[in-house]
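ugh ok fine here u go
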Amino acid sequence: MLNEKLIKYTSKFSFHSPWFIIIIFATFGLIGILNHSMWRDELNPWLIVRDSKSLGDLVANIHYEGHPVLWYFSLALLRKIVDNPIIMQIFHLAITVVSVTVFCLYSPFNYQQKFLFSFGFFPFYEYLLISRNYAFSMLFIFAFCTGFSSRKITYAYLAILLGLLANSSAYGLLVSFSLLLTLLAEFSFDSEHRQQYFSQSQKYDLFLSILIIIFSFILSLYIITPPIDSYLYGGLNNGWVIQLDIRHLLKSIGRIFGSYLLIIPQHKRWLDLIVCTIIALFIVILTLIKLSKKPIALFFYIIGNCVIFAFTYFRFIGMPRHFGHFYLILIAALWLGSYYQDSRVLLNKLFIRPNSITFVQKWHNIAFMLILYVQFLGGIYSFSRDLVVPFSASREISQYLQKAGLDNEFIVASRDANMAPLSGYLNRKFYYPEIQKMGSFTLFKKGRQDVEEAEILSQINSLLKNQDDQKKILLILNKKLNVNRNDLKIVPIKDFKRGWVDSERYYLYWVDEA
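structure:
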C-alpha cells in the first residue's frame, strides 16, 4: 500500500510538479557551468574588480564598460568570499535558477510552456552558461511580474526591482524604463486602481518609490555614460544611424525574429530580410491583438518593443544576449496580462468582433508554442555543444601552462582584450604590447593601441635587452605568428585551437635572443 502511494506521488511529481523542472534545470545547470570555458566578456569584469586599486578606481574603470555597477559590485562582494572566478559562475547559476524557480512557481503559463521555456535557448544557455550581467534582466523582470499585485498597496517593492533592473545592464535600463511607463500609464488612467492604492498605502509610499526610481535611473545613466577618452563607447563605437536605411531597418526587425525564433537573417540577402520581417511582424500583430483585451499589458508590450527596437536601429544592432530582451518582453507582457480582467474598450473602438479575437488567439497560441519549441531545441543544442566544444580555448591553455610549470614565467600576451580569460584563470598579469606594460583587463581608452606582430616582436626584443635577468620570454598570441626577426629565436610550443570563439584560439611560443 505504501509502495503504491510512493509510486503515485513520484509519478505526479515527475510529470506535474514545477519542482521537477527546477531540480533538473539546477542539476544540468551546475554540470554545464562547471564544464563551461569562460571567455573575455565573462572574465574582463572579474579582472576589473580584482585589479582595481580602490572603490573610486573601480567605478572609474566601470565607466569604460558601458554597463551599470550592479554586476561589478556583486563580483566585488563575491571576491571577498573566494578569490576565484568559479564563484562568479556559481553566483550566475544561482541567479538563473532563482529566475526559473520564480517563473515555474508564479507565472500563469501551463506546465508544458514552463518546461519548454525553462530549457529554451536564453534561460538554459545564453543567460545560464555565459556569466554576464544580462541574467539579472530575467531575474528582476520575473520578480517584477510576480510582485506586480503589490502595487495596490505599495509601489516600493516594484520601485526597488526597477532600480535593480536599471542598474544591471543598458538593456535592463530600457526594460525598466518601459515598465515604469506602464505603471505611470495605469496610475494615470485607471481611477479605480488609483483610489484603491491611496486608500491602502502608507502616507509616504509614493514619494519614497519615486525617489528610489529617480536615484536608480540617474546612477545607471551616470555610470554607462563613457568618459571623453573612451573610443569604444562601451561597445557602441559605430555611432548613430540617423537616416532612413531600409536594409538596416529590416535587419533591426530581424533581431525580433532572431529573439523569437533564433535565426538571424543574413543582412546581405534581401529575401532573408523580407521573409523574416514578415514573420516577425505577423507574430507581433498576433500578440498585439491578443493583448488588446488587456490594455495595460498591451501598453507594456508596445512600449517595451519600441524602446528596444529604437535602440537597436539607431544605436546598436546587438547580439543574442542583447536582443533576447525582445523575448523577455513578450513573456512579461503575457504574464502581466494575467492580472487583468478582459476589457472590450479597445475592441469596440477598433471594431474588432469577438469571433475575430477567438481566431487570433488560436493562431497566437500556435505561434507562441512554435516559439517555445524552437527555443527549446536551440537551448538543448547550444547547451550540448558547450559540453563537447569549449566556448573558448582559454581554460585548456591555462591548465597546460599550470601543468607544465610555465604559469610563473614572464609572459607577453597579445591581443590584450582576448587574454582576459587567461589572466583570470591563472590569477596573474601579463605584459601587454598594446599598453606597453603589465596588465590584466582591457579598457578601450587613450593610451591603448592595437599593435601588429612586428611591433610585438620589437617590444620583446627591447625587453630582452633591457632586462639582464630575462633570458627568454613566453609569448601567447590569439593568432598564428606570421613574421620573424633575425635577432630573435622563436620556437613554437603548442597550439590551442579547440574553441567556439575563433578569436580565442591560442598559440604559444618561446622567444629569446638569437
